[in-house]
Amino acid sequence: MILLALVLLQEVDFEREVRPILTAACLKCHGAEKPRGRFRLDARLPAFKGGASGPSIIPHNAKDSRFLKLLLSADAEERMPQKAPPLKPEQIDLLRRWIDQGAAWPDDGSRAAEPPWSLQPLRKPAESIDALILAKLREKGLRPAPPADPRTVIRRLTYTLSGLPPTPEEVEAYVADPRPAAAVDRLLASPRYGERQARLWLDAAHYADSHGHDQDRPRPNAWPYRDWLIRSFNSDLPYGRFVQAQIAGDVLFPEDPLSLVATGFLAAGPWDQSSQMHIMADTVDKKIAQNLDRDDMLSTALVTFMSTTVACARCHDHKFDPIPQVEYYALQSCFAGVDRTDRPFDDDPATNRTRQELLRRRTQLDLGRFNPEEADAEVARWEAAGGGRAIAWTVVSPSSFSAEASTLVAQPDGSILAVGERPEVDTYTLTLDPALRGITALRLELLTDENLSNKGPGRQDNGNLHLSEIRILDASKRPVKIAHASSDFDQQGWTVQHAIDGKPETAWGIYPEIGRPHEAWFELAAAVDGPLTVILEQRHGRKHLIARPRLSVTAESVPVRRAPLPPEAAVPRDRRTPAQRNALAVHVLRGKLDRELAALPTPRLVYAAASDFPPKNKFSPAKQPRPLHVLRRGDVTQPLQPALPGGLSSVPVPFELADPGDEGARRAALARWIADPRNVLTWRSIANRVWAQHFGRGIVDTPGDFGRMGGTPSHPELLDRLAAALIDSGGSLKALHRLILTSDAYLRASTHDPAAAAVDGGNTLLWRMNRLRLDADQLRDSVLAVSGRLDLAMGGPSAMQFDYKDFDPGRTPMVDFAAFDVDRPEGRRRSVYRWVFRTLPDPFLDVFDAADASQLTATRNVSITPLQAMALRNNPFMIRQGGHFAARVGGDVDLAWRLALGRKPSGAEADAFRAYAAKHGMSNACRLLLNSNEFLFLD
Q1: Residue 41 pLDDT > 90, yes or no?
Q2: Is the separation of the CB atoms in 636 and 288 below 8 Å?
Q3: How many CB atoms lie within 10 A of CB 644?
Q4: Window from 219-228, 255-264, 403-412, 506-515 with minimum mean pLDDT
Q5: Which residues make Cβ contacts (< 8 Å) with residue 540, sequence separation at least 6?
Q6: Is residue 168 part of a domain?
Q7: 548 and 424 in one domain?
Q8: Of 198, 311, 377, 818, which is the most buried if we count CB atoms within 10 A?
Q9: Which CATH number characterizes residue 437's domain?
Q10: Cα(798)–Cα(225) distance, rounded to whole angstroms?
Q11: Are residues 402 and 545 in the same domain?
Q12: 524 and 423, same structural domain?
């Protein structure tokens, strides 16, 4: 007994006793490569975490450890190891004792006991930025470089905060009174600050004005998100709200119309139009496209906000970071109900609040969610007003009709068919002489025809139409006022109500509800007698023409309805079944909601995340979260278990979600989880990004990856100091910029020191300032600023700085950068406002390492190539701006140098410049300045 007690008390040696058992009996099926049940026993972290069935080894609790239960199972199909002899009793006893003793497993690189540096609690060192940096320098026996001269400092500050060069006056003012704090405050208050910050953020979000993939079709309503970014940076929106707005602003901040615009962040990346628009729902290919789309949204959010890469876990547990596959799909399910499309919004908060509430109620109605008592009362009011009775319409064949460009042919059914060539725009004039008098309403039917593309009802290639304006004239050719217009279908943003508002830029659109007839009804403000002249105008171009209209009139006084009566309306109220009552309620409530929506002003559109929108071809909204599963190897045909929303267990922040069935609640929960001050990844990530903006390299040199395969912080205490300061300031990014830019570290010279370089050649310890080159956008904007051609107008649709042709809606547009006249107004806008085609980059900017809009770009590459020298010297943009620069300065050499380099030339420099200008022309001489290293580099 004493011997047995000693054996039980003796500590089990993992390496000598346990690992051999695992290696011999378990690793064939549960090693690193293709582990069964996603359960690995080759490393500590995955062994303790377990596989698809949850935790397997519970330290100090062998009895409840699934690992031991499987070794002892009486079921031969379940017992481990499978298809092999069971372990010997003494081996099982040893494993039991090992677990009960705490399952000691020496660190093997998986480091289950200690979280990686990025997940450790945030520390708040009391030392200043400079004290923390000087302490590191002293450890290596290094001394910091002296302060930079005032001219260098003001140039550096202006570029880093505004992306533009300082004016000669600003340089002179700072040299006379070199106060960094005052200069920083002035630059932070400038609207140029928001433009520069937005450009960097758009890189991180891989924003573009086109979808990418094989067609790379235009995305004309993406720009409001860019303008929201600029506005948010300039107003110093607290960072926590900045994060939350971009994931779930429409849910969390409904009182702010622009918070809906902020969700353009989720839609900023590529979108596979071919798969999403043209593949049937519920097919494998469609599910793959949706899976990849959600993956992009998730990766964008976590890489941008948390510097965390999760895409590896789509197919298996992350090999290096504590991200199980099941948690990846928990995160992905937060986007299970959203797609990317144009969403309507209003600048007026009250109008926007009304519109979004009506849209929300319409979605709920489509899902069968409504108050039965309120619905019954609404149906009763509708029937009392005559809604349950049919209207007697009289078809009226026009006694005369004409078109400006089309050929119109009368049809036996009273309709008029347009045949022959299809003009870009057209106007139809139809004269009606109905037998009825006291006409109260007019009906316009848009009939289909087998001879039309997709049967119509329009003549555009895809059957679409835009009806720009509908006007009715009485017998005296005076306008007849239309009190109300409604229809059975309104294209998003293109309602029949907008076809009677007298505005040429609005219209009624039919797309994608093509291939079937449509109707519109026009209630007249007062009854009129015939004859009537009806004018149908199409002024939107692209052959959006009406194909086969038919007109009817009525003299009844009952309200005009939006759609044909449902059959349930013919059943007496007391005989309707519950299903019939519900069907009629949906019909009546939907009509009421649609009428209220149509009565609102024309909304603006933003390309953003959306759960409800008009179907387009085979692209339909989810309206509620789609059911998702954890997928074996990421294969949509191999679901393993349902995926429910949640966060990462390695981030000790609660993921609070009251209603998993509410799409918006899922995104709101994710937004709160990411922005929580306890989520150290979020605050370390943005602190590092801001530092990298100013020093050219982050404290962690992989801004998009704080995992084990990313870099480690050169100054971990400094990173925490910055993150804590940002949290304590309430999330003020301007305060964080101010803290960094007034530090001695930022204000140092970039002077080379051979002795220091021998110890720290990469300047990781920041003994000097890094010498930074202008990025592509700074370079282009600076050339325009120096030449006097820069247009500082803010906001609005993206400027196409290329010649654009869009012949075939099914193919990538034709974009010609070489043919574009750089003196056109679009060519003078700042680069942040340029239209970015995802697969068709601007050649000039591309050669200077502009961000690839198909990739998440945490930091831009900086290359030095012969192509850059050639572009600076020979690109038409540079040649033209050199001419404008010369015209601006005339023969004033001092002014040319002050504008380009922020200083006057020396006597020798001035003489050489004049001699070159005399020989080659002032334009070439000015272009020489724009080619100089002093212009291209901050120091």
Answers
A1: no
A2: yes
A3: 15
A4: 506-515
A5: 425, 466, 468, 507
A6: no
A7: yes
A8: 198
A9: 2.60.120
A10: 11
A11: yes
A12: yes
841: left (phi over 0), alpha (psi -120 to 50) or beta: beta
Instruction: Kindly state whether residue 577 falls inside one of the protein's structural domains.
Output: yes
The pLDDT, as a whole number, for residue 718 is 98
The answer to the question of residue 33 being in a domain is: yes
Tokens 């007019």 found at: 442
Q: What is the pTM for the complete model shown?
A: 0.80
My answer on whether 307 and 407 are in the same domain is no
| Residue 49: partners with Cβ closer than 8 Å, 6 or more residues away | 55, 56, 112, 317, 324
Closest CA to 628 of 330, 367, 217: 330
> Which residue matches tokens 């009506």?
358
What pLDDT shows up at residue 487?
A: 87
Judge if 305 and 448 occupy the same domain.
no
Mean pLDDT of 453-465: 88
Residues 476 and 555 in one domain: yes
| Co-location of 382 and 470 in the same domain | no
891 near 897, Cβ under 8 Å?
Answer: no
Give me the phi and psi of 552, to 5 degrees please.
-135, 160
List, for residues 295-333, the tens digit of each pLDDT value. 999 999 999 999 999 999 999 988 888 899 999 999 999
CA-angle at 684, arms to 680 and 688, nearest 5°: 170
pLDDT band at 63 (very low <50, low <70, confident <90, very high): confident
Q: Specify which residues 533 forms β-bridges with.
A: 431, 473
- Residues 669/662, Cβ–Cβ less than 8 Å: no
User: Total domain count for the chain?
Assistant: 5
Which structural domain range is residue 288 located in?
Answer: 251-316+323-336+645-673
**332 and 428 together in one domain:** no
Predicted local distance difference test score (pLDDT) of residue 23: 84
Flag whether pLDDT at 3 surpasses 50.
Answer: no
CB within 8 Å of 4: residues ≥ 6 apart: none
pLDDT at position 5 over 50: no
Give the span between the Cα atoms of 210 and 773, in whole angstroms: 29
